[in-house]
């Protein structure tokens, strides 16, 4: 991994709902190197989006450290954080809900520039036209409204909005999930091209492990607010070390329509964060669970160079 641009240490997030404390994230730690694309995967309810939004402080962490380019973000005031925000941008999941129907595309794309005091009106519009060109949309789109565009085009506009401030780091939160399958390949190829051409660093959140394999350098596997495994993409897909990762990967179809490995169906649903299992949070659904798993919270340990897992077992064959 190259020099770390982002470092997250012991990130925790709690909510209180009707007197009940919900633990959404517990002790999350990882780094992302400059120019690296890191995938964040896991079932719905695992805490993926909360991590992405916590990094940009769209959600306030309960505790922990988030260090970006040497700056500790969790201690910054709102005014100082605003000066850092242009370097960190967010691509939202829903291209329909994330674009205001009352604003022109030009107004949407220049809003952040205006807030940051960048240039005059014409200079901001020129940057908006340039961003549209990067996502293969015509410059005259600035005069139109979001409802005039398809879902795939709207997501391209969302990507263009993230690019207008020339960020170094982007959180892409399920950017394909609201799109038709026929459009997904175009958008993921666009993101990959932009990342390589602009040297972007990216946290790519997705439930589609086939897409993650295609675009990501490393992968973080999350379950019920805890990291189960971190590894280079090639290593994780070739030799997953955690039972949860193996179950997720077994569901990916191969080109001939069959599963890549013996299908492992997880029983039951992901537990509620209001009442997580004692010990290993995955043990209630784990086909390899031992009695000790109910007592021991496994630490994330290195089992191969750059490959970490949170499991007390070594014999998973």
List the helices and strands and how they pair.
Layout lengths: L3 E14 L2 E14 L3 E5 L6 H8 L7 E6 L2 E2 L5 H7 L3 E4 L13 H11 L5 H14 L16 H13 L5 E5 L7 H18 L2 E5 L3 H7 L2 E6 L2 E7 H6 L4 H8 L50 E4 L2 E3 L8
Parallel strand pairs: 3-8, 3-9, 6-7, 7-8
Antiparallel strand pairs: 1-2, 1-4, 4-5, 9-10, 10-12, 11-12
Helix pairs in contact: 3-4, 3-5, 4-5, 5-6
Describe this structure in words.
The chain is of the alpha/beta class. It contains nine helices and twelve strands. It has helices at 48-55, 78-84, 105-115, 121-134, 151-163, 181-198, 209-215, 233-238, 243-250, and strands at 4-17, 20-33, 37-41, 63-68, 71-72, 88-91, 169-173, 201-205, 218-223, 226-232, 301-304, 307-309. An eight-stranded mixed sheet has the order 6-7-8-3-9-10-12-11, sandwiched between helices. α3 (105-115) crosses α4 (121-134), α4 crosses α5 (151-163) and α5 runs parallel beside α6 (181-198). The two termini are 29 Å apart. The mean pLDDT is 93.
